[in-house]
Amino acid sequence: MTPRRRAATLPPRSEDRLKRIAMAVSCGIVGLPNVGKSTLFNAMTAAGAEQGNYPFCTIDPNVAVVEVTDGCLARIRVHIETKKVVPAVVRVVDIAGLIEGASRGEGMGNKFLANIRESDAIMQVVRCFEGSTVVREAPVDPVQDIEVVELELGLADLETVTRVAERVAKKARSGDKDSLREKAVLDRAVSVLQSGKLLRSEEWSPTDLALLKPLCLMTMKRMLYVANVADDDMAGNSEHARAVARHAEQSGAGWLPICADLESELRGMDAADREMFMEELGVQHLGLERLIHAVYSLLGLQTFYTAGPEEIRAWTIPFGTKAPEAAGVIHTDFEKLFIRAECYTVEDLEELCSEAAIKSAGRMRTEGRDYVLAERDVCHFLIGR
Which of 99, 29, 97, 92 has the alpha carbon at shortest distance from 59? Predict the structure, then answer.
């Protein structure tokens, strides 16, 4: 087999954008009605989702693909001429407000829950501000809101797992070893959910996870609580926001304070006014950047880059990904035909200014199949024919 060097990017094609969307990290924005989900969605995406002060303003899920802000791309382009720069993207889905009884079909019911199952992570928006401008009959209680949402997710998962467990039990009665193993895992999942716990709160072996993964169970997904705070509590120091922080710590989830109204207002400004206003408020980063960073951290994701005359591109992979698997993110053939990778860091490029200089300085690393990619690696993959 004769190796040939190829930059790990594909030629530009008409379906390029669709491919990027398919590869994107997907986040579902959920919560009770009128907690600020669509306001947050619009602030993140400038997509213009309908907003309203009444239940079920969002009926069909709003979907947007958001480019990930990444300063490394500009840093690479300073030193490598290219035709285009392609950032990583996150697919954001704003889903109709969930109410108590959704697992039994109340409100938007199963249609709502089906949209969550397709997401990699869940952003649960909870109201952490007082005021009469938004319809709410009960007092503001973010932890109770969280419990309502997660109870419905748990009940829906219980229905799913119970149904599959009953089907698998029929095969297990024949003594089939694979079915017996699967039944044991499903029975354990049923027990966890019946006790009122979330599946992600338990320890599962890699084999267990592989068996449960096809079910797309919602309480197994990573959760980020987004505390929708008032514009005078952007650091999340109010008692409501701190209650969310404590709950997140206890449940092993992430949390982030965001003022959705302010973020939406900032997104509507031109760049100069936005920069001036953010400086006055002491805000360094828009909520979008902080949310994406939080989701990446929650899911254990990192970025590597490919760079050449056709394009400079950011790719998203889990921490711990080895070189052949990283190549496979770009094209499945790259993983199967992987021979080795040539790697350097963004910092190497900034210091030495060109790939030729990096090679001359002995800083271009040749890595094999067991190499685990590091954050900010720039890679060329060598593949076989």
Answer: 97
Euclidean distance between CA atoms 353 and 346, whole angstroms: 10
Nearest to residue 339, comparing CAs of 379, 281, 295, 303? 379
- Nearest residue to 68 (alpha-carbon basis) of 341, 305, 346, 332: 305
Predicted confidence pLDDT, tens digits, the chain (385 residues)? 334 444 333 333 334 444 444 457 888 888 888 888 888 887 777 644 333 332 333 334 577 788 888 999 999 999 999 999 999 988 888 776 555 554 454 444 455 567 778 889 999 999 998 875 555 566 889 999 999 989 988 998 999 999 999 999 988 988 888 999 999 999 999 999 999 999 999 999 999 999 999 999 999 999 999 999 998 898 899 999 999 999 999 988 999 999 988 888 887 788 888 888 888 877 777 777 888 889 999 999 999 999 999 999 999 999 999 999 999 999 989 999 999 999 999 999 999 999 999 999 999 999 999 999 999 999 999 998 7
For residue 221, the 8-state DSSP code is S
pTM above 0.70, yes or no: yes
Whole-number Å distance between alpha carbons of 45 and 217:
27
Q: Please answer whether residues 338 and 345 qualify as being in contact, where contact means their C-beta atoms are separated by less than 8 angstroms.
A: no
Smallest CA-to-CA distance from 68 within 378, 223, 356, 294 is with 294
Whole-number Å distance between alpha carbons of 28 and 352: 42
